[in-house]
Give the backbone structure.
Amino acid sequence: MDNLHRKIIIEFLSKYAPISKELEEIILEHSGIKTLSKGEVILQEGQVSKECFFILKGCVKKFHLIDGQEKITAFYTEGQVVTPNSYTDGKPSKYFLKTMEETIALFGNPDSEKEAMSLYPELASFIGLVTEKLIVDITDEFDTWVNHTPEERYILLNQERPDLIQRVPQYQIASYIGIKPESLSRIRKRLTN
Amino acid sequence: MDNLHRKIIIEFLSKYAPISKELEEIILEHSGIKTLSKGEVILQEGQVSKECFFILKGCVKKFHLIDGQEKITAFYTEGQVVTPNSYTDGKPSKYFLKTMEETIALFGNPDSEKEAMSLYPELASFIGLVTEKLIVDITDEFDTWVNHTPEERYILLNQERPDLIQRVPQYQIASYIGIKPESLSRIRKRLTN
DNA sequence: TGATTTTCTTAACCAAGGTCAATGAAAAAG
DNA sequence: CTTTTTCATTGACCTTGGTTAAGAAAATCA
């Protein structure tokens, strides 16, 4: 694990609570690092996920297939945790996870998670914090979504995740903000005038 | 606490894991039951929440005030937990919580929660399950929302929470599904034809 | 490099929701 | 039982996004 990756993890973990070097090592030891090539499918619809992961480098999209069309509901990038619902509830996934670029991520599975938690009880409360924070983030995102128009969502996206606009094709951004590529073109035109 | 309320709680708790009579008592002892009258504001925008609650009877709406307009993002009814983001992250709330009817709820606060958890470690892992399930529910709701039109959302709401249509005024249902009351009228007309 | 595929833009027309204003119906208040 | 207020519906007109089809621009590949 190189220094950049280490920094991303530590930065992430420190958001939740002061973290000891010891706990840091425990977490690193119990997760496996993997590199995925561009366009790789991490989770299929109907499949039960056995892994959650943390992105060190790269970008992953989450999408539903509706009438043969991809409907993107999330882009995950560096420093984000991805815990598929299917990983948590053991039910077949309703959505896909697919890399947009070559992606390096730390993978964890329930067995090693349980093992680590039984060895290090402080890990459990730490995971609790991460989980609680996730709820706050998701509900905030939901509220932001429903309280804005597609045009406003595009403006917000430019402000809050300008990197995404650069690295993701526009027609996928369109899907993410809930409109068709043609409409996003028009919105962009409206905005430049 | 009467039998109906007891039943609602036990039904709720059993969704997550088999629950012992003992743990049941612990939870009941550490939460205070309160009755709120119709129209009571539980949480104000800008306020830091010190309580989460579980609804035994009644209905609570969550809404943002945008340009003086209520934008409803959730209705909570019997058997649902409400954990304000502000309760979790300690930051001022971005939204309001207000009762739609007389509402009876079990309230918990961080102090009694921590006390109970230190006395009964098994409670912590139980709360972990509840929290994880919340994430699954919220992301499912989010995905359902973004993948449907207002008309489809209205049809879904009728199927999945027919009680809400009965007990909540239509213009508030309209706000909840993201449209104006006039548009909901038109949708209803379209659907009857 | 030239060829091919992918992505982005434009335009004309359509459908759904927003706005404004008027009217009716239903509930609440007196 | 009225009166008043709140809520729901309707219609005319506007705005935004969807659809379809064509072509331009960019990225990829041979």
Q: What stands out?
A: Residues 3-119 of chain B form a domain with the Jelly Rolls fold (CATH 2.60.120.10). Chain B touches chain A at residues 64, 66, 71, 73, 83, 85, 88-89, 94-95, 124-125, 127-128, 131-136, 138-143, 145-147, 178 (CB under 8 Å).
